[in-house]
Design goal:
8 helices, mainly alpha, globular
Length: 179
């Protein structure tokens, strides 16, 4: 309900002078809609530039769907805030951990069929994003993809740290900033 209400507010005021868009990725992740979170962040990163007509409701808005969460981090997004960077970091970490888990499953079950891999992912994966990527699931070795996701997660970690030096220490030790 909170996600629907937030998206309704954005539809009513695309300019988002209340900055409710910063809540959307976290709400999507909380509802296990990781792909929706990624698509939302990507739209703001690549489409929300200073030339976009925020008051023109005939323009496409939040129209990216099924974007590739394995792609490289966009270095200079049009718009992004701390909550977007944090959500992207979590998405990349979840994908990395799911692939590590699948890699371990394949080591223990070297003859696992594609169906067995999907069954495993449906049961064990933190995110459902891999289920939409048969090209990746079909691979026999995920080491390179895992290494790339690790690099991207570290890159995003550093970007979050640059935006707010207190964020990661506060996550690691909440009592540090408790009142």
């Amino acid at each position: 309900m909170a996600l629907d209400n937030t998206l309704d507010l954005l539809r009513l005021c695309r300019g988002d002078n209340l900055d409710v868009r910063s809540q959307v990725p976290a709400l999507c992740l909380r509802l296990s809609r990781d792909q929706n979170a990624y698509d939302f962040i990507k739209w703001y990163a690549v489409k929300a530039d200073s030339h976009y007509g925020w008051r023109d409701v005939s323009l496409p808005y939040l129209n990216l769907h099924g974007e590739d969460a394995f792609e490289a981090v966009i270095e200079k997004p049009h718009y992004i805030n701390l909550s977007f960077f944090v959500a992207l970091t979590l998405i990349k970490i979840c994908l990395m951990k799911d692939l590590e888990s699948l890699q371990k499953f394949l080591r223990n079950n070297p003859n696992a069929t594609g169906e067995a891999r999907y069954d495993y992912l449906q049961e064990q994966a933190m995110s459902d994003m891999l289920l939409q990527r048969p090209d990746i699931v079909a691979q026999d070795n995920y080491e390179d993809t895992i290494a790339e996701l690790r690099r991207q997660a570290l890159q995003l970690y550093k970007m979050v740290k640059e935006k707010n030096t207190h964020f990661w220490p506060g996550i690691q030790n909440p009592n540090l900033y408790a009142y």
